[in-house]
Amino acid sequence: MRCEDSEAGKLSSMWWALAVSGLLCLSLCGCNSHRPAGEDADSAGNKDTKVAAVSTVRGIDLNCVMDHIQNPPGNFHYSYRKDSSDPVAEEADITPQTIDGSFTNGSGSHPIHGVKSDSQSWQGAWTGLMGIAGMSSAVALVKSGSVIQSEGAEKVNGYDTTKYSIDTSRADTTEQGLYRSTLGSGGFEKGTWWVTADGCPVKLSLDSELHSNNGSVEKLHYEEAMVQK
Question: Of 36, 102, 194, 225, which is most buried with the most CB atoms under 10 A?
Fold first, then answer.
C-alpha cells in the first residue's frame, strides 16, 4: 500500500516520537486541561462565550474515509490533495461497484480503475487512493484541546456535519509546549474540517508548517473531500 511513504521520510523520527508522547499525555494525563465555559474574560470584562465551544472532535477517523473508498456505502466523488515539495493529488468517482479516477505525483498522472466483481482490479483501485493516510499524524496532533473549536452544525457535500476550526495559536500553556516540541518554534497547524456523526471528515483543509532547528521550514497543505452524488 502506498500511503505517501515519501512524506513519512520527510518527517524526522523526533516528530513522530514527540507527537505520540504528547498525544498520550493529552489523552491519559489530562494535559489538555479544558477550562470551564465562561472562565475567561475579555478586556471589557465580558465572559468569553467561545470557551464553551472548545472540545474534542469525538471519533474523527481517517480510517472512516478509507473504509468508504474500500467499501462504498453509496455513490460519491472523492478528492485528496497534498501541496508540498512532494505533491500528491487523487480524484475518483466511486460507487459500490466501480472506482474510476486518477493519482498524480511527481512522476505524472496515473489512471485508476476498479470493478468490485474483479477483486484484483478493485484492490488495485482503492489502494491507489490511500494517500490520506499520510496526514494521520498531522490530524492526530490537533484533535483536542484549546486549538480546536466547534463552529456549529452545517450541511456540506450532502452530509450533515459539525464544522470545526483548528488553530494552534489558540493553544494554552501546556499545549504550546507540545506544539513547539513537535512543530518547532514558529511552527503551526491551522485549518477547518467538517465531520459527520460517525467521524468521517467529508471536507477538510489543513495547513502545517514544521520548523526544524537548522532553520529549514517544511510547508504542507492538505485538502480532502467526499461529495455525495
Answer: 194
pTM, whole model, 2 decimals?
0.74
> What is the DSSP code string of 92-141?
EEE-SSEEEEEEEETTEEEEEEEETTSHHHHHHHHHTT-GGGGGHHHHHH
Has residue 117 got a pLDDT over 60?
A: yes
Q: Which pLDDT does position 115 carry in this prediction?
A: 98
The grid coordinates of residue 93 equal 468517482
Is residue 101 within 8 Å of residue 93, measured between CB atoms? Answer: yes
Average pLDDT of the chain is 80
Q: Which candidate, 167, 165, 215, 221, places its Cα nearest to that of 189?
A: 167
Q: What percentage of residues in the chain have a pLDDT greater than 90?
A: 66
H helix intervals, the chain:
5-10, 13-28, 62-70, 119-127, 136-141, 173-183
